[in-house]
Amino acid sequence: MTDHRGSPAARACLQQVFGYSDFRGQQAEIIDCVTQGQDALVLMPTGGGKSLCYQIPALLRPGVGIVISPLIALMEDQVSALRQQGVRAAALNSTRSGAERAATLKAIHAGELDLLYIAPERLLGSDLLEQIAATEIALFAIDEAHCVSQWGHDFRPEYLQLGILGQRFPQVPRIALTATADHRTREEIQQQLLPENAQVFLASFDRPNLRYEVGLKEKPREQLLRFIQTRHAGESGIVYCMSRRGTEQTADWLNARGIPALAYHAGLEQETRQTHQSRFLREDGLVMVATVAFGMGIDKPDVRFVAHLDLPKTLESYYQETGRAGRDGLPAEAWMIYGLQDIYRIRQLSHQSSASEAHKRGEQGRLEALLSFCETSDCRRPALLAHFGEKHPGGCGQCDNCLNPPRTWDATDAARRLLSCVYRTGQRFGAGHVIDVLLGSEGPRAKSLGHDQLSTFGIGRDHPRATWQSIIRQLLAKGFLAPDPAGHGGLRLTDACRPLLRGEISVELREDLPQKAAPSTRKVTATDVAVDPDTWARLRAERRRLAEAEGVPPYVIFHDTTLLAMLEQRPASLAEFSQLPGVGQRKLERYGESFLKALADCEPA
Ligand code: ADP
Ligand code: ZN
C-alpha cells in the first residue's frame, strides 16, 4: 500500500534539505517508485514540482544521480540552487574549463557528488559513459523529455540516442519528465526513452494560481501600460509580441513611461540576448518584451504576468508561454488582447497553408481551438484543458469570463444583414468598406462603385461601427465569413452561411464591452505585502544583497513564498525561522541570522 505522505526517509530529506513539510500532488508516489529502482514517466505542468521527483531519490539512493537537461542556463541555475541547499551538485557543459571538468570527474569517482547535470551531447559524444561505467549511478533523470519528439517544437536529435542508457545500464532507474502532455509526445517519450513497464504519473495540467484574461485590442500599448501599472507595478513579467521590431518599440515605449523593460528576439546579438536574459533573471521587477524565441527553460519562479499583444500560434503555445508565469505557486496572470485583424490573419493562414490535406486538417483543428478559446463566453479553463484531453467542469472563478460574465445577444438579424451586404458588394471588400455601406456613409468610394444604390446601403444604422466590427470578427471566428482568397483583405461568404441566410439557424454573439478597469485591483501577491510594504522592501533588499554577494539570482537565496511567510509569521528565533517553507538546514545556517536581523530592524517601535 502506498503512503501518500511518502516514506520516512523521503520526508526527512524534504524537510531537512528543501525545507518543505509536505509533498505535493503525486510527488511522494513518484519519489518512492524511483527510489525503489523503478522507471517512471512524469507529466506535470510547469511549477508542479518536478525537480524534487528526481532530486530526492538521487539523494536517497547510493551513487550519483545524472540529470540530462538540454539548457545550459537552466542547468547552472539548478546547480547553484542545489548547492545553496547543501546538495553536492555539479554541471558538465561547454562553459566549463578542462580543470573544472577533471575536478568533477574526480568527485564522481570518489563518490562525492549527489547530482550531475549534463547536456545530452556531452553525455553521448565523449567517453564519459565509459568513465563512469564503474561508478555507482543512482538514477538517470531525463528532463524536458518532450525534446525527443520530432513533431514538437523543441526537438533535439541527441535525445533520440538516449535509449542507449537502458541498454548499457539496465539496472539504473530512469525517470523522464516533461510539462508537455499531448498524447503523441507522451507515446514517443515512452517508446524512445523508457522501458515498457515504466509507471506513468499524469497530473492535471490546470494551473490554479493563474488567472486568465482575454480582451479586445483597442490601443494595445496603452492597455498594456494600464494593466502593468494597476496590477503589476514593480513586478517581473513577460510581454509576447509577434514581430522583432514590435518587441523593441514596445520596450522603448514602456521604458519612456517608467516601466523598466528589455527586448529579446532572435535577431539580437548573442551577447545582448544573454545580458538581457540574465538581467531578467537577476533583477527584480523587469519586464521582458520578447518574441517566442524567449522562454524555453526560463526557470524564474516569480514571473507575475505573461501578456500577449498578438495571438500566439496555437493554443498549445499559449499554454506553454503563459505557463512561465507563477512557477512559485503564488497568484499570477495571463493577459491577452486581440482584434479583428488577428482573427483575419489566422483565417488567412488556415486557407493559405500549402501542406498536405492531413496536415492541413490538423492545422485547421489547432486554429479552431485557439479561436474558440478566445471567443468563448464561458469559463476559459475547459477550453484550454480540453487540449490536454482533460475535462474541466468550468466555473473556475479565476478567469475573466467567470469574474465578469459577458452578456450575449441574438445577432441573427444583424448577421444576416451584414452577410447580405458582403454578398451584394461583390465579396471582395474588407470590413471598413462593408461597414461604410451598412452605415450608409456618403463617401466618394461608395458612390464611384455605385454601392450607394445597393439595397443594403444604410440598412445598419441601428448599430454603431464598433458593433459591426465585433460582429464581423465573431462571424470570421465562427467561420461564416472568410478572407477572400486573392489576399487583398476582402471578406467573402462561406457555405456555413446558407442555413443562416435561409433563417434556419440563429447566432448568439458576445457583447463586446470596452475593457473595463481591472475587475479587481488587488495586487496578486499576498495582502500582507500591502499591509507592510516597508518590511517587504527590506526583506527583498536583504535577499538582493546576499544574492549579489553569492553571484546568484535572488530567488536562489529564497523564493517569494519564503519571504511572504517571514512577513506573515514574523519568526523571532532560528527555531522559528526553520519552520518557514523553503528553509532547509543549510539555508537556516547561512541566512537565518541575516533575515532575523532584517525583521527585527523593522519591528514597529
Ligand atoms: P517544475 O520543474 O515542475 O516546473 P519545480 O520543481 O521548479 O517545478 O517546482 C516549482 C516550485 O514549487 C518551486 O518553487 C519549488 O520549490 C516548489 N515546490 C516543489 N515541491 C514543493 C513542496 N512539496 N512543497 C512546497 N513547495 C514545493
Ligand atoms: Zn473560469
Hetero groups: adenosine-5'-diphosphate, zinc ion
CATH superfamily of the largest domain: P-loop containing nucleotide triphosphate hydrolases
Question: Within the CATH hierarchy, at the fold level, what is the topology of the largest domain?
Answer: Rossmann fold
Strand line-up in the sheet with most strands: 3-4-2-5-6-1-7
**Tally of alpha and pi helices:** 29
Q: How many domain modules?
A: 4
| Unreliable runs | 517-524
Proportion of residues in extended strands: 5-15%
Describe the structure.
The structure is a single chain. By secondary structure, the chain is an alpha/beta fold. The chain has four domains: 8-202, Rossmann fold (3-Layer(aba) Sandwich), CATH 3.40.50; 210-403, Rossmann fold (3-Layer(aba) Sandwich); 408-510, Orthogonal Bundle (Arc Repressor Mutant, subunit A); 530-602, Orthogonal Bundle (DNA polymerase, domain 1), CATH 1.10.150. The chain is 46% helix and 13% strand. The strands form four sheets. Strands 3-4-2-5-6-1-7 form a seven-stranded parallel β-sheet, with helices on both faces. Helix 5 links the parallel strand 3 and strand 4. Helix 2 (27-35) runs parallel beside helix 3 and helix 15 packs antiparallel against helix 16 (357-375). The radius of gyration is 27 Å and the shape is globular. Mean pLDDT is 90; it is low at 517-524. The structure holds adenosine-5'-diphosphate (ADP) and zinc ion. Adenosine-5'-diphosphate is lined by residues 20, 22-24, 27, 44, 46-52, 301, 327-329, 559, 581.
